[in-house]
Amino acid sequence: MNFPQPFYRWRPHPWHGLEVGPDAPDIVHAYIEITPSDSMKYELDKITGYLRVDRPQQTSSLPPTLYGIIPRTYCGQRVGALMRGATKGDGDPLDICVVSERPIHQSEVILNARVVGSLPMNDHGEADDKIIAVLENDPVWGDIRDIDQLPAIIAERLRHYFLTYKLKPGEESQVSIDQAYGHERAKKVIRAAIADYEEEYGS
To answer: Using one digit for the tens of pLDDT, what is the confidence trace for 136-188?
Structure first.
């Protein structure tokens, strides 16, 4: 039997088994963990590649966009060096938030995302950048190339979500987020995360 190439006999691991993207760092693959309707925090299990329930959200804030990871990226020393006040990366795949005009209610999907900017999130001294992208070929957002072309409220809602999504009653937030930056710096972060991944896991 002739199989299409490439052919995966078993399901590839979303972090290690998928390509980083068709034209990285401009257009990357996003593996979606959470949709805007999710009040649970799901996270990719690094061992099995399945989604794991991380925690119920304890605030009323819901993710304003699709939220997931960029395959074959790793937030290590190179990513940490790009953020003021960070001592290292957070040791996870690079996070990505994807704006889509049509609702996508299904998680564990792969999509092509055009990078437009990022939010520089510092979590307990670790760099945890949130790349912001638009769905490639989206009829409303697909022509956007930089974050300043998006309505400012989108980045502000993302900022509010990430400032509050780890909050627990009676505790103060240890998270800080500086001003959002554009696609050129976001691409530097993605390149650094690709290099960190290759150093950590091999190319």
So the answer is: 999 999 999 999 999 999 999 999 999 988 777 777 777 899 999 999 999 99
Using CB atoms within 10 Å of the CB of residue 146, give its burial: 0 to 12 exposed, 13 to 18 middle, 19+ buried: middle
Domain boundaries, the chain: 27-167+174-201
What gap in Å lies between CA 149 and CA 95, rounded to an integer? 21
pTM of the model: 0.94
- Angle (CA) 119-141-20 rounded to 5° is 60
Exposed, middle or buried: residue 25 (CB in 10 Å: 0-12, 13-18, 19+)? buried
CATH node for 27-167+174-201: 3.90.80.10
Mean pLDDT of the chain: 93
- CB burial of 58-86 (b: ≥16 within 10 Å; e: otherwise) equals eeebebbbbbbbbbbbbbbbbbbebbeeb
Q: What are phi and psi of 17, to 5 degrees?
A: -95, -10
pLDDT over 80 (residue 20): yes
Q: Which candidate, 46, 44, 43, places its Cα nearest to that of 57?
A: 43
**Is the Cα dihedral 180, 185, 200, 18 positive or negative?**
positive
